[in-house]
Amino acid sequence: MSTREWSREGAATHRTDITGKTERNDFVRKNRLVAITAAASMTMALGACASGAEAGDGDGGPSTGEVRVWLVGSDTPDEARDHLKETFEEQNEGSTLVIEEQSWDGLTDKYTTALAGSDAPDVVEVGNTQASAFTSSGYFSEITAEEFEELGGSDLLPGFVEAGDWEGAHYALPYYAGSRAVFYSPQLVDAEPPATLDEYVDTAKDLYEEGKFSGVWWPGQDWYNALPFIWENGGYIAEQADDGTWEAGFSSEGGIAGLTQIQDLMLNASNAPADGQETDLQVPFCEGKIGYLSAPTWIQWSINAPEEPETEDGVPGCASTYGGDLEAFALPGKDGGAAQVFAGGSNIAIAQKSEQRDLAFDALSIMLSDEYQSIIAGIGLIPAKVSLAGEVPQDTSIGAAGVEAAATAKLTPATPKWADVEAQTVLQTQFTRLANGEDVEQVAADIDAEIESILNG
């Protein structure tokens, strides 16, 4: 497990590891990079686990032993890790708990190999968009209805519960969520936050100066920020019919309306590259070239990083300028209130091949306990339990916007084949066409055709 430092100073809160790299890329890696290898990896996984992996010993395992917990990236704070280890070992005398930190890079391949092998970890964190790929492959132990209630039941984030379910059973439960908010600096934007999605579009266009200032920053490949416009206008990504087939909805009336607004912003409010990606968004923001920046709430740590990084590979922030005067609001919906935005985050599961299932469940219980989840909430992540949302600090507009946005956040379709959609960069490619001014209806038809071919293939 890598060593990390924590630095907190009011609005300049940020997190770094010993290399100086911030967590700014964790969200992107979780929801995009892990999917790049998913198609090939899941094909291998399905073959290896077609009949389901065998459980360790069939009776819950030994009463004592070593439990290995795989956490990914550095989102889980040291305080939570220490609490997990100390509480588990106090409650299970004679047993030990070891936390092994994994990287989002290459995670799918590593999990595919480890969870199918003879030395599988006991409890694992997975990105929410990859959960169904693992559950459908038989890698996770089923959480019974009684256990589900014990761990939180209806209090658990419903969208993340759905992401971790497979064929009517629970496998991977919510761990934490992250939501997107719209960031701005009053030094650059003195307008009141817009009340509706249409007002947001109009304000961003009013702020725009071609080649000089973006009312909103929208790189062409950024499909995460596109989904709210589809949902708010009544469109959908893809829905499954009673016969099991999938129908994509970008060509629906609401889908076309949403894509039209997206293209309007791309062409008339943004100076971002038409083929650009949604990485390192703090860089153009800190250059004072952006009015509104829609991003995961944890980008505040990157913006609030020092202008001169402590290490050579650190990315500069703007802590004493725009970072010191940073505000945020929840993206407004079509009719007001918070829009339905894409929710990032993680699920947590017990490995099917865990040799000590009972001890693994004890560890999972601690991770979903109110005390542990309150620690998670304390650093600004949305906890797994709806009832603990108030534990997220809301003394700033950023914290309040994150909680408001999370309340209506949605996920991509709960099918293991969605990983193939991401792996084949369907949306990235098609939204780049929108940014280049191509016909909206043709782009919508092509998106639907590709998604349906993959999900129904």
Automatic annotation (TrEMBL):
Q: Which family does it belong to?
A: Belongs to the bacterial solute-binding protein 1 family.
Answer yes or no on keyword Aminoacyl-tRNA synthetase. Answer: no
Q: For this UniProt record, give its keywords in alphabetical order, as a comma-separated list.
A: Signal, Transport
Which InterPro entries does this entry report, sorted A to Z? SBP
Q: What is this protein called?
A: Carbohydrate ABC transporter substrate-binding protein (CUT1 family)
One GO biological process term: maltodextrin transmembrane transport
Q: Which GO terms describe its cellular component?
A: ATP-binding cassette (ABC) transporter complex, substrate-binding subunit-containing
One Pfam family hit: SBP_bac_1
User: Care to name a GO molecular-function term for this sequence?
Assistant: maltose binding
